[in-house]
Amino acid sequence: MARSKLFVSLLAVIGVCMLAGTSFAKKAASPCPFKGNYAFFFWDPAADMSGVGYLSVTPTAGTSCRAGTVLPGGIINCRVDADEYETFIEDGAVFLETDGAGTMEIETNSSGGICGTGDNAIELDISVASKGTAILFNGNGVKNVSSGTIPQAALYITGRMAKCYAADLVSGSYDFHFWSYEGLVGDCNVDVNGAGLVTGGSCRCFAGVSEYLSEIESGTYTPGENCQSSTGYMMFTTSSDNVCGQTSSTIILDYAVAASGTQIFVGCDPGNKFNCSGEGYSSM
User: Fold this and answer.
1) What is the tens place of the pLDDT at every residue in 220-253?
2) 113-151: burial string, b at 16+ Cβ within 10 Å, e else
3) Chosen domain end from 140, 163, 186
4) Are 52 and 149 members of one domain?
5) What predicted TM-score, i.e. pTM, was given to this entire model?
6) Which of 60, 66, 95, 159 sits at 20 to 30 Å (Cα–Cα) from 248?
7) Strand pairing of 134-139 and 101-109?
């Protein structure tokens, strides 16, 4: 009988110890998902303007991913009408609410300012989605950024960021859709060989009351260095219709690659007769 009571007592002690270990074990801190290099594209729905680029973000320690810094070294590449502007990112800050919404301030350095505005700072309203792999953003229109001390570039823009992919395009096909404030929408399927050549595909476009179909014959592309998306450059020639009925048989795109090579952001280079913005995915 005594032996039975001792056994029960030992079980009780073991149970209490296990409960204590379960209750008081410290959980590992979750890493901040909004961190690293992001490719992005943006456009103005009411003007002939679009752009691509990349930036790097790091969270501030001890803020539970509520604050962060935009690191120097990023690029904003912007087309306005037939002109192109390249601006280098030097500084910035991020502030987030618990629901993932917040603001991002970006400070740059260039003679013409961001997109030729003459101002070298912009503040964006942002939403962090998909566990930090995608960022939705738009300009917020405040007059000054950085606590009201720096004039903001007056840009009516919207766009999206995704985790940058620093390697070459993956051999296969990319499907992307594109649009322009001029009243055209379309999509292209572009085949690449992973070694700098466009090998085929097609583009379909609806503009005004007409639809155009162009077959891609050949082309080339040059990836940006690491995540320097603004230097990613693609061109290809087509047969059949002129693309969207507005440009010659050669299309020139600035592009950025994200999401481990499965996603592509594009913007029409000033070498085209129309501007465009677009995004797509690998169709492999």
Assistant:
1) 998 877 776 556 889 999 988 888 887 667 888 9
2) bbbbbebbbbbbbbbbeeebbbbbbbbeeeeebeeeeeb
3) 163
4) yes
5) 0.79
6) 159
7) unpaired
